[in-house]
From TrEMBL, chain A:
Gene3D superfamilies: Aldolase class I, FAD/NAD(P)-binding domain, NAD(P)-binding Rossmann-like Domain. This is N-methylproline demethylase. Keywords: Flavoprotein, FMN, Iron, Iron-sulfur, Metal-binding, Oxidoreductase. Its cofactor is FMN; [4Fe-4S] cluster. One of its GO terms (biological process) is fatty acid beta-oxidation, unsaturated, even number, reductase/isomerase pathway. PANTHER family: 2,4-DIENOYL-COA REDUCTASE (PTHR42917), 2,4-DIENOYL-COA REDUCTASE [(2E)-ENOYL-COA-PRODUCING] (PTHR42917:SF2). GO terms for molecular function: 2,4-dienoyl-CoA reductase (NADPH) activity; FMN binding; iron-sulfur cluster binding; metal ion binding. It comes from Ancylobacter defluvii. In the N-terminal section; belongs to the NADH:flavin oxidoreductase/NADH oxidase family. Residues 8-344 form the NADH:flavin oxidoreductase/NADH oxidase N-terminal domain. SUPFAM superfamilies: FAD/NAD(P)-binding domain, FMN-linked oxidoreductases. The lineage of its organism: Bacteria, Pseudomonadati, Pseudomonadota, Alphaproteobacteria, Hyphomicrobiales.
TrEMBL record, chain B:
The gene is dgcB. The chain crosses the membrane at residues 12-31, 79-99, 105-125, 146-164. One of its GO terms (molecular function) is metal ion binding. This is Dimethylglycine catabolism protein DgcB. InterPro entries: 4Fe4S_Fe-S-bd, 4Fe4S_Fe_S_CS, Csal_0991-like_N, Cys_rich_dom, HdrC_iron-sulfur_subunit, Helical_ferredxn. Gene3D superfamilies: Alpha-helical ferredoxin. It holds the Pfam family CCG. The keyword Iron-sulfur applies. The lineage of its organism: Bacteria, Pseudomonadati, Pseudomonadota, Alphaproteobacteria, Hyphomicrobiales. Keywords: 4Fe-4S, Iron, Iron-sulfur, Membrane, Metal-binding, Oxidoreductase, Transmembrane, Transmembrane helix. It comes from Ancylobacter defluvii. GO terms for cellular component: plasma membrane.
């Protein structure tokens, strides 16, 4: 039971456009654009949310209106010419077929983009002030630029309307061109576009007026903006209130989509896209304040991960619509489950930021725990029943094993799941012990609840043996036994302990610690933070160019902030070559990867992270008896076909997750989903 | 031997004397009813004495017997004791007539009658000794079998002596003495004891407030209160109509109401039997003598009562928690062999508490004020009533002007749970191509909750406003998934000038499936039980349509022990959920346990209150599904090509 859930189900009408409920997904960049167009993958991703009951889904988190705001970064959409219109039409039909509304976000990124992409045009802005995040220095716009970009916004809006989209918003958030004009941190102009707030608001006003003119009075046009840039020389909350109130009063916008902060550098990304270290809905006060000042509906997204928070935000009148964007990446059927009274089945976003972090390194948005998201063409969100019920034995109840058991059970198979630990979760249980990473525990919690709901025979505290597995007379055996941490390959490595030993509490280090990381993931950074908080003097060394190299944009700054605050010494470009004892202490020998100069540290403990190696004992003993010699048909796996041994007498043996090769949670879950959906 | 010294002749005189005494005692008791207000009859007329008295034998032998016979042993016991007593006494009286008194055959017949009375009395004794069942009252009631046996047995001896003659004459005198002791004891019990039910019950049948109950009608509508009266509702016994007072005196304390009462079972401070005894005692001098089971967890009261003293209050006879515990489920009424109208009395008492004293339970205060000022008990905007549709198109009658079926949404539409039911129903209407519409924001609350909570003024306003709205549109009938709205619109709006053809969705879907307008496929195996909503089953007599409908789904349907018109309440009626009077257990927990006891995995419901109450049960529960949801699942499972109207 979700209190006030009915508040979310109330339709909202904006200018004659009725949105069926109060839950939406904001425009974002999943990295699915192809040739600057929203093609099948992009459309199916949003159509799935529509099918799942969402009221409004907005796409194209910053679709470009002009050539000097290229679509290539983040694989975005270009609305700079009419060739996009047929794609919009197809897209709108797909989403409308499921009763949801579809809108787009239009923008000119100004200085917040790259000049060295498809068109090689200089970036432009209000003034020639470099943006730390994009590292480009723009050209200050002249009147011709202003006229041209205003025209481009108007043309783009017309294309949206002709494409059958239900509306659009302009992005004046995250440091795009319109808010570059607003913000005194960028706009240093002395003409009528700079100086007073009224002057700084002029460019945005011209953009919105031109868009209105191009689309007629009945088209829904909104704005996404910050409620407070939280930047010393940026827009204050009072400035933002005034901008919102003025634009709304003057009829320039039909809704205001409010977020908090900005995105000019690394840390501001982490704040404006809050991860699991933040409380839920940390910036709800910003739209709430704006809502008091305006007559138009107010939307808001920022870590509203659960329906209870969303319902509270709407029921208490802070917002008119609540955007649960990442929540829909985790479970696009969120609203349908609420409506059908199956809210216990909602896979809740844990705030790992895996989706968003991938796009900042040029990848596609994927969910750490839902491998079907973004893969709708090949991966089902609702698992179909198999023609025949099989007996499936899964060994290991980490994320891979749990997902394998879940999917197999949904297929109608009879599943036995062995887990030697007394609770499910595998390595996630370890990772979740590290300070702000606790919310990772939501992943196995949901999986385990689903698995037990689907009637899987779960045997906790039971280390499966070959005899126990064969006694089940399985047709399929899936080994998800995970991996084990090891102390690596440096000379004297046996004197080191692993990050696992620390997180699991098997050792309680004190004194000085050298933590050596060869993975660059969350694990070592989290462990360094744990050690420092326990009072150790910690130096964290890594072979990589920087600490936490593999950790993404919205998470890395949080790690670095915590490590700096805890006084951890950060030493990149250093390789661990030897550990030897000296008295009752240890000497760690390090070599600089650039200069080859060697250094030594005298410490009480050396803690290392070299990732995991698969646990292979059962595989070796079961392999001979299996019909497939333990082989996975990779062609079939990738093509989405059943494994070729399916149906043969005896059992087929597969490995998934870290038992196959140590990778990450998403890989483990994807291994399981794509194998089991065809079993 | 002279006739005068004959015990048989003495028996005749004794009977004549007893009859005379009984008449005096009864008349004195009857005089006390006169303190009440004018008789109240749901037909809006006074008591039709002629028709009523003429109908008594039929009402007694058919309607009362129908209730009594649910306990066959009790029916036989009563037939023997009462029949034997009446027949024997009448014969004994006739024995005063000379030719008969000399007839051996006559006395054999008389003896036989008293033998039957004796057997009946013995059965009464057997039921009460050595251990009295909890639902039966003790005290004078425990003496009843002794008196019956004494009178019947004594008279039997007299009749036997008269049959066999002199050898047994001493036995005859002994018999006469016994009969006299028993007989006077019984007459004494006419005043305040068990025997009161005999004459009060007979008169109650003649002057019953709801004569329709004896003519095959459900007759369950509450009667409107006169809002111009100097006092609204009932504060003192004198505020009751005299035929209600008569009804209270008809109680025989059999305890069937107590067994049926959900509040009693939950340990809330309500016992319908005790309540009726308190009301019967309230207009007599002295505290009521009562030796039955008490109000569970009884709240302390002063125990002071009298014809013109308040009935309800900590300083009076009945604690307010008692009257607010009632769910108005009418299970007590349904079970009462004396046809007493408990719920009418409770609502009358509530009316005074609510309208004159504004003394309602804390939880009911917002409900009533919102009902009055927002025209919706939850205070939610009327325009939000259609939000449940969650994107489904809902035709508004304001746009269409007319329709065949007007869908009345009810207060449940605001709840997520019932929203699912309504969406299923709307989808079924669409699939069956029904010409339907809703009132949308023009639908006000039907007033059920306000009325059951005693706020007749708000109810009357809501009724008139809804009737005015409905009068602007043309429709053939009103469909609703809410039995409370069904009852109010069908049975209670006529008194305010609104006459509509109502149909509950169970009956409507039964129609559609029977006509083949919805194609169902049999659902996969599963065991299901159906929980009858009080306001559908007991209030409106509809117990078969839901079952016919469910049987078409192909599931294995099992019945709970209490089902149909005798089903147990979910605890959701009469404002009980907002009044929220504490007990030992929750009523829905008890009902859900009954459902689970059948082994059913699903309990089918047909009322938003039942769904909410039963779904609120935690632990080992059956899943709760409304009929509409079950039917939609079966329709969706059917091949799409067969779906009519797609």
């Amino acid at each position: 039971m979700i209190p006030h859930a009915e508040a979310l189900l109330k339709p909202l009408t904006i200018k004659g456009l009725t949105i069926r409920n109060r839950v939406m997904s904001t425009s974002h960049a999943p990295g699915y654009g192809k040739d600057g167009k929203p093609q099948e993958r992009y459309q199916l991703y949003h159509a799935e949310k529509a099918k799942g009951g969402i009221g409004l889904t907005m796409f194209g988190g910053s679709s470009s209106v002009a050539l000097d705001s290229p679509a290539t970064p983040w694989a975005q959409i270009s609305v700079a010419d009419d060739s996009v219109i047929p794609y919009f039409q197809q897209f709108a039909e797909r989403v409308h077929a499921h009763g949801a509304k579809l809108m787009i976000q239009l923008t000119h990124m100004g200085r917040r983009t790259k000049w060295d992409t498809e068109h090689w045009l200089p970036t432009i802005s209000a003034s020639a002030r470099r943006e730390p995040a994009s590292r480009t220095i723009p050209r200050a716009m002249d009147k011709n630029d202003i006229r041209r970009v205003v025209r481009a916004f108007a043309e783009a809006a017309r294309r949206c309307k002709e494409g059958g989209l239900d509306g659009c918003e302009i992005s004046a958030a995250h440091g795009h061109l319109v808010d570059q004009f607003w913000s005194p941190s960028v706009n240093q102009r002395t003409d009528e576009y700079g100086g007073s707030l009224e002057n700084r608001m002029r460019f945005g006003r011209e953009v919105l007026e031109a868009m209105r003119e191009a689309t007629g009075g009945d088209y829904v046009i909104g704005i996404r903006m910050s409620g407070d840039e939280m930047l010393e020389d940026g827009l204050s909350q009072q400035d933002c209130l005034e901008i919102a109130a003025t634009y709304a009063k003057d009829g320039l916008v039909d809704f205001i989509n409010v977020m908090g902060g900005q995105a000019r550098d690394e840390m501001s990304h982490a704040i404006s896209l809050p991860n699991m270290s933040f409380p839920v809905a940390p910036f709800l006060f910003l739209p709430s304040a704006i809502k008091r000042e305006v007559e138009v509906p107010v939307f808001h997204a920022q870590r509203v991960t659960d329906l209870a928070t969303g319902a509270r935000a709407v029921a208490e009148g802070h917002v008119d619509m609540v955007a649960m964007t990442r929540a829909h990446i985790a479970d696009p059927h969120l609203m349908r489950k609420l409506i059908e009274g199956r809210d216990d089945d909602i896979r809740q976003c844990v705030g790992a930021g895996y989706c968003i972090d991938r796009i900042y390194v040029g990848g596609d948005a994927l969910c750490i725990q839902n491998a079907a998201t973004g893969r709708e063409a090949t991966m089902p969100h609702v698992i179909a029943k198999a023609d025949r019920s099989r007996k499936v034995v899964v060994v290991g109840a980490g994320p891979a094993g749990l997902e394998a058991a879940r999917v197999s059970a949904e297929r109608g198979h009879r599943v036995v799941l062995f887990e030697k630990d007394d609770r499910p979760g595998g390595q996630i249980n370890l990772a979740a012990r590290a300070t702000w990473r606790e919310a990772l525990s939501g992943i196995p919690r949901w999986l385990a609840a689903q698995v037990s709901k689907k009637g899987v025979d779960i045997r906790l505290g039971t280390e499966a043996t070959e005899a126990m597995i064969l006694a089940e007379q399985p047709e399929v055996v899936i080994l998800a036994t995970g991996g084990l941490a090891h102390t690596g390959f440096a000379k004297g490595a046996e004197r080191a302990v692993t990050t696992w030993d620390v997180l699991a509490g098997r050792i309680e280090p004190s004194g000085s610690v050298l933590l050596y990381d060869e993975i660059g993931g969350h694990n070592a950074a989290s462990t360094a933070e744990v050690l420092a908080r326990k009072g150790c003097l910690v130096e964290m060394a890594t072979h990589d160019l920087q600490i936490g190299q593999e950790v993404g944009t919205t998470n890395k700054p949080i790690h670095l902030r915590e490590l700096y605050k805890a006084g951890v010494i950060l030493t990149p470009n250093m390789e661990l070559i030897e550990i030897y004892p000296e008295g009752n202490r240890l000497v760690a020998a390090l070599r600089n990867t650039m200069t080859a100069a060697e250094e030594e540290r005298v410490v009480d403990h050396v803690v290392v992270d070299y990732g995991t190696l698969p646990v292979e004992g059962l595989f070796a003993s079961l392999r001979a008896g299996s019909v497939n010699d333990g082989e996975t048909d990779l062609d079939a796996l990738v093509a989405g076909r059943p494994q070729r041994w399916t149906g043969e007498d005896g059992y087929a043996l597969y490995r998934i997750g870290d038992a196959w090769t140590g990778r990450n949670i998403h890989a483990a879950i994807y291994d399981a989903l794509r194998l089991c959906k065809d079993l | 031997m002279t006739a005068a010294s004959d015990p048989a002749f003495g028996l005749g005189l004794l009977v004549a004397l007893l009859a005379a005494c009984a008449a005096v005692v009864a008349a004195r008791a009857a005089l006390r009813w006169r303190i009440g207000r004018a008789a109240r009859v749901d037909r809006g007329t006074g008591v039709d004495w002629m028709a009523g008295l003429l109908a008594v034998p039929r009402r007694y032998l058919v309607d009362v017997h129908h209730v009594v016979a649910r306990d066959p042993h009790a029916a036989r016991m009563h037939a023997l004791a009462a029949g034997g007593l009446l027949a024997g006494s009448t014969l004994a009286l006739l024995g005063l007539v000379p030719p008969l008194g000399a007839s051996r055959l006559f006395w054999i017949t008389t003896a036989l009658a008293f033998l039957l009375a004796l057997v009946g009395g013995a059965m009464v004794a057997r039921r009460r000794y050595p251990r009295r069942p909890a639902r039966l009252s003790g005290g004078t009631f425990q003496r009843l079998p002794l008196l019956l046996v004494a009178y019947g047995g004594g008279a039997l001896l007299v009749a036997l002596a008269a049959t066999l003659g002199d050898p047994l004459a001493p036995l005859g005198w002994l018999g006469l003495a016994m009969a006299a002791i028993g007989g006077f004891g019984l007459v004494r019990q006419l005043a305040g004891g068990p025997m009161r039910h005999a004459f009060a019950g007979a008169l109650h049948l003649a002057a019953h407030p709801r004569p329709g109950r004896f003519e095959g009608e459900r007759a369950t509508a509450l009667m409107p209160a006169d809002l111009e009266a100097p006092r609204l509702g009932v504060a003192t016994p004198a505020d009751f109509a005299w035929n209600q007072l008569l009804g209270f005196d008809a109680c025989i304390q059999c305890g069937r109401c107590e067994v049926a009462c959900p509040a009693f079972a939950a340990g809330q401070p309500l016992n319908p039997k005790r309540l009726i005894q308190d009301l019967a005692g309230a207009f007599k001098s002295g505290p009521p003598a009562y030796a039955g089971s008490p109000y569970p967890n009884a709240r302390p009261v002063a125990g002071i009562g009298g014809p013109d003293l308040p009935i309800v209050g900590a300083g009076a006879l009945i604690h307010p928690d008692t009257i607010w515990s009632c769910t108005t489920c009418r299970a007590c009424v349904e079970e009462c062999p004396m046809m007493i109208e408990h719920v009418d009395a409770i609502v009358d008492l509530r009316r005074f508490q609510t309208m004159e004293l504004a003394a309602v339970p804390a939880g009911a205060i917002p409900t009533l004020s919102e009902s009055r000022y927002a025209e919706e008990p939850g205070g939610r905007p009327l325009s939000a009533r259609t939000d449940f549709a969650a994107g489904l198109p809902l035709p508004l009658i304001a746009d269409k002007g007319s329709c065949d079926v007007l869908l009345w949404l009810g207060a449940g539409a605001y709840e997520l749970r019932h929203g699912r039911t309504l969406r299923a129903l709307v989808e079924l209407l669409r699939r069956a191509s029904i010409d339907y519409a809703v009132l949308g924001a023009e639908e006000r609350d039907c007033g059920d909750l306000a009325r059951r909570l005693g706020d007749e003024a708000t109810f009357a306003d809501l009724a008139r406003a809804n009737i005015a709205t409905l009068s602007r549109y043309a429709f053939r009938r009103i469909l609703t998934a809410d039995p409370h709205a069904l009852h109010v619109l069908r049975n209670e709006y006529p008194a305010f000038g609104g006459h509509y053809e109502l149909i509950h969705h169970s009956a409507f879907l039964d129609e559609l499936t029977a006509e083949g307008r919805l194609n169902l496929v049999a659902m996969p195996d599963g065991r299901l039980t159906y929980h009858d909503p009080c306001y559908l089953g007991r209030y409106n007599g509809e117990t078969e349509a839901p079952r016919r409908l469910l049987d078409r789904l192909g599931l294995e349907r099992v019945e709970m022990e209490r089902h149909g018109k005798r089903a147990m309440c979910c605890g959701g009626g009469g404002g009980a959920p907002v009044s929220d009077i504490a007990g030992d257990r929750r009523i829905p927990d008890i009902r859900m346990a009954q459902a689970r006891a059948t082994g059913a995995a699903t309990v089918a419901v047909a009322c938003p209150q039942c769904a909410a109450m039963l779904e609120g049960v935690t632990g080992d529960v059956a899943q709760v599904r409304d009929l509409a949801e079950l039917v939609l699942a079966a329709v969706e499972a059917a091949p799409a090509s067969q779906g009519a109207g797609r």
